[in-house]
C-alpha cells in the first residue's frame, strides 16, 4: 500500500519520541531527526525518515551516516520488504579517514549488531531488517523495540568516530576530496524498476522542454507573459512532492514569479 509523507510523518515522529524515552540518556541526548518523512532524492515512490547524531561534522554527512526508516512500496531497492529499517553508512561519502573508519566499522559492528539485522560491508555499510505491516498505523508499536535494539547497540560504536573530528572541511577541501574519487555506476537489471525510477524524477528531457515551449507559444502557462531564457521554469502540474510523474503532460512552462506563487500546489494551467 502506498502512503504520502504527510500520512507517515506523525507515525514516525511518535516512534522517534518513544525511542528516545527508552534509550540511555548518553545516547538519546545526542540524537536528532528529519523534520518529517521525505521522498528519496532519486526515487519518488520511496519515503524515508532519518535519525542521526547532532554532533556529526560535515565529513560524516547526515544524509549518508544515519539510521534510516524506509517505506518502499514499489520494491525499488532489491532484497527488501515494503518497509525496512537500517543503519546506513555510505562509505564513499566519508570525507576524512575513510580507510580507518571502514576498517573500524567492519571489526566492531559484527560484535554488537542485533541478530535481527542483516549486515553488509563495502562501499555501503548497513545493518538492515525488512518487514511488512498490515497498515502504517502499526508502525510505531512495531518499530520502537527495533529502534532501541539497533541504536543502543550500534551508537556506542559510532560515537568515538563522530567525536574524533574536531574540525570540519572547507567547501574547497570537500570538493577536492569528492573530485578525487572514482564515480561508482550501478545498473538495475529490472526494466520495470528502471522505468519507475524515470517516472519519479524531477528532471525533464531537453526535447520535452522545447516541445512544451512551442505548445505554449513561449508564454507562461499561468499569466501569459513571454518567456525569456533566464525566466523559464518547467513546473510539475501535479507536484513532484505529491507524487507527480515525469510525463510530458504533467509539465508546463512558467515564469519565475508564477512558479514561486504556485509552489507545491496543484492548479489548472491557464493556456494561451
Topology:
Layout: H1 5-22, H2 25-28, E1 31-33, E2 38-39, E3 47-53, E4 65-71, E5 83-90, H3 98-112, E6 118-120, E7 124-131, H4 139-163, H5 171-180, H6 191-199, H7 206-215, E8 233-236, E9 251-254, H8 256-262
Antiparallel strand pairs: 1-3, 2-3, 3-4, 4-5, 5-7, 6-7, 8-9
Helix pairs in contact: 1-4, 3-4
Rounded mean pLDDT score: 84
Q: How can the largest sheet be summarized? A: 7 strands, antiparallel
Shape type:
globular
Structural class estimated from helices and strands: alpha+beta
Distance between the termini: 39 Å
Query: What's the total number of strands?
Result: 9
Would you give an account of this structure?
Helices cover 36% and strands 17% of the residues. It is an alpha+beta fold and 272 residues long. It folds into two domains: 5-170, no CATH class; 204-262, no CATH class. Helix 1 packs across helix 4 (139-163). The longest helix is centred in the middle third of the chain and has 25 residues, at 139-163. The radius of gyration is 22 Å and the shape is globular.
Keywords for this structure?
36% helix; 8 helices; globular; seven-stranded antiparallel beta sheet; alpha+beta; 2 domains; 17% strand; 272 residues; two-stranded antiparallel sheet; single chain
Amino acid at each position: 500500500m502506498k502512503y504520502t509523507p504527510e500520512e507517515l510523518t506523525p507515525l514516525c515522529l511518535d516512534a522517534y519520541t518513544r525511542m528516545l524515552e527508552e534509550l540511555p540518556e548518553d545516547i538519546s541526548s545526542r540524537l536528532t531527526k528529519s523534520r518529517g518523512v521525505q521522498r528519496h532524492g532519486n526515487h519518488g515512490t520511496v519515503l524515508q525518515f532519518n535519525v542521526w547524531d547532532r554532533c556529526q561534522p560535515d565529513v560524516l554527512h547526515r544524509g549518508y551516516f544515519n539510521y534510516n526508516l524506509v517505506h518502499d512500496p514499489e520494491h525499488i531497492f532489491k532484497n527488501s520488504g515494503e518497509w525496512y529499517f537500517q543503519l546506513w553508512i555510505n562509505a564513499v561519502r566519508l570525507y576524512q579517514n575513510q580507510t580507518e573508519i571502514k576498517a573500524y566499522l567492519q571489526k566492531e559492528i559484527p560484535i554488537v549488531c542485533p541478530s535481527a539485522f542483516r549486515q553488509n560491508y563495502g562501499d555501503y555499510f548497513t545493518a538492515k531488517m525488512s518487514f511488512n505491516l498490515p497498515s502504517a498505523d502499526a508502525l510505531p508499536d512495531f518499530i520502537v523495540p527495533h529502534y532501541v535494539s539497533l541504536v543502543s547497540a550500534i551508537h556506542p560504536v559510532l560515537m568515538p568516530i563522530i567525536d574524533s573530528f574536531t574540525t570540519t572541511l572547507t567547501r574547497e577541501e570537500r570538493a577536492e576530496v569528492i573530485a578525487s574519487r572514482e564515480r561508482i555506476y550501478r545498473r538495475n537489471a529490472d526494466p520495470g524498476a528502471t522505468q519507475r525510477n524515470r517516472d519519479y524524477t524531477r528532471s525533464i528531457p531537453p526535447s520535452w522542454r522545447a516541445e512544451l515551449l512551442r505548445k505554449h507559444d513561449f508564454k507562461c502557462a499561468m499569466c501569459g507573459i513571454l518567456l525569456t531564457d533566464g525566466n523559464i521554469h518547467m513546473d510539475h502540474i501535479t507536484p513532484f512532492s505529491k507524487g507527480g510523474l515525469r510525463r510530458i503532460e504533467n509539465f508546463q512552462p512558467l515564469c519565475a514569479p508564477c512558479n514561486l506563487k504556485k509552489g507545491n500546489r496543484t492548479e489548472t494551467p491557464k493556456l494561451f
